[in-house]
Amino acid sequence: MSADVVDDGRARVGEEPAYGSPVVLWRTLERLRPPGPLFRGSLWRSPLRGTWLTSVFASVLLVGLPIVIVTGLLSYLAYQPQFAGNAFPAHTHGLRLPLFAWPTHPSWLYRLSEGLHVGLGLALIPVVLAKLWSVMPKLFSWPPARSFAQVLERLSLALLVGSILFELGTGVLNTQYDYGDLGFNFYTAHYFGAWVFIASFVLHVALKFPTMRRSLKSRRLRDELRTPLAETVPEPQDVHALVALEPAAPTLSRRGLLGLVGSASLAVTAVTIGETVGPRSTALLSARGRSYGSGPTDFQVNRTARTAQVTPQETGSGWRLMVVGSSTLSLSREQLLALPQHTASLPIACVEGWSTVQTWSGVRLRELVRMAGTQDLQHAVVHSLEKAGTFARAVLNAGQLTDGDALLALKVNGADLSLDHGYPARVIVPALPGVHNTKWVSRIELNGKLT
Ligand SMILES: Nc1nc2c(c(=O)[nH]1)N[C@H]1C(S)=C(S)[C@@H](COP(=O)(O)O)O[C@H]1N2
Ligand SMILES: [Mo]
Predict the structure, then answer these.
(1) What pTM was estimated for this model as a whole?
(2) pLDDT, tens digit (0-9, with 9 covering 90-100), for 184-226
(3) N or C: which end of the chain has fewer CB within 10 A?
């Protein structure tokens, strides 16, 4: 039996099913074809669909998606899930990567990796959609499978398509909702979805890579980019059953389609990149395109003091910072300001992709560690005045506590922190994910209890 039957889902009644497969089963399926044109392949008439076109989109994703995957896993590692309660999936069960102490150098490490994760993830959405469009007819091929091997292949495709859409969907929601309640834990969902995606992606690449390579060699991109609409003809029929059986006349050239998808990617980037580099006002698609007044404290605020239910009473003259080590310190803001001050230009890089570099001044965390004293510093649990909320506490590793630029910041850009930016004091540590730069700090427990 020829290979074209195996991979072609379209009607070929009368041909023999794959050798060794339970003939009756596939035959029966064949007869159960739903009525209407959808499952007959005649509805899909774009003359542009074909293995080469799909392979072009595939090659872009083959380069881009691994970067999104690796930076996503880096984000997981940066959250330091070895410290229980660090705002990351408490329930990752066996799905843990080898964990290590997340470094503090270079200070832009998390800014770059998370900016790439979110920025590239968004820019690839048009390419993912284009590739799904290009293989649409396969979704409606009938019978859905002609062998058990094909059943498995199609199941893995369902997982692949389902998980990429799920990851893109949850990712976009998280960038748009300021950690609003999505009705589920974003971290857990995105993390487990990622593993389903990674597994099905690796399998898919392993199965399809030879086809993609062969197909990319079958036409020259340069020639396609020179072919106008008038000369646009369908790709030759092949075993992959993507080329329309009854192609319509082209209304768009292949270069037109590639240009459209490429422009869509560039457009997404153009209206989001401002949240990381460039003027923030250009970040039209970003939930952080707004302004926070003028002056030194005019930069992004996700969670305001009001939302966090932190009141001016709690942050007023009665506020004290407790540092619990071998001894327990209680320090007023004046006492903190009287300690040696250090200034550093450091980013806040949010998991949502936005970042901003500001000039922070305050007391070095290691100075506080020295003053309170501790034996064998492993970590510190930082508590906020905020009572509820995922980020009311964070755990820092020893390197993050002893880095010379790691601060309990009291000022930003020469001015007192604003209440929304964490007044009276907040944590700012180089290369630390935004979430762990705790605002409205009330207590720092050296080697404190992890829960
Ligand atoms: N107490 C407290 N600290 C917090 C947060 C918070 O919700 N509560 N948000 C964190 C997050 S997610 C980021 S990105 C940074 C900057 O957040 P902001 O934009 O709300 O200032 O502060 C972090 N510190
Ligand atoms: Mo964040």
Answers:
(1) 0.92
(2) 888 889 999 999 999 999 999 999 999 999 999 999 999 999 9
(3) C
From 219, 174, 239, 153, select the one nearest 435 (Cα to Cα): 174
CB 127 within 8 A of CB 63: no
Mutate to test the pocket of ligand 1, among 302, 432, 436 (most ligand atoms within 8 A of CB): 302
Which residue, 281, 255, 282, 287, is CA-closest to 269?
282
Residue 170: other Cβ atoms inside 10 A: 19
Yes or no: say if 72 and 113 are a contact pair by the CB < 8 Å rule: no
| Residue 440 CA to ligand 1 centre (angstroms) | 10
The ligand 1 atom nearest the CA atom of 434 = 14
C-alpha neighbours within 13 Å on the C-beta side of residue 70: 9
Helix axes 254-270, 125-134, angle to 10 degrees: 150
Of 27-31, 48-52, 169-173, 425-429, where does mean pLDDT reach its minimum? 27-31
Instruction: Provide the residues around ligand 2 (an ion) whose CB is within 5 A.
Output: 350, 434-435
User: How far apart are the CA of 267 and the centre of ligand 2, in A?
Assistant: 24
Which atom of ligand 1 lies at the shortest distance from residue 352's CA? 14
Q: Is 103 in contact with 36 (CB distance < 8 Å)?
A: no
Task: Return all residues near 52 (Cβ < 8 A) that are at least 6 apart.
Answer: 215, 216, 218, 219, 235
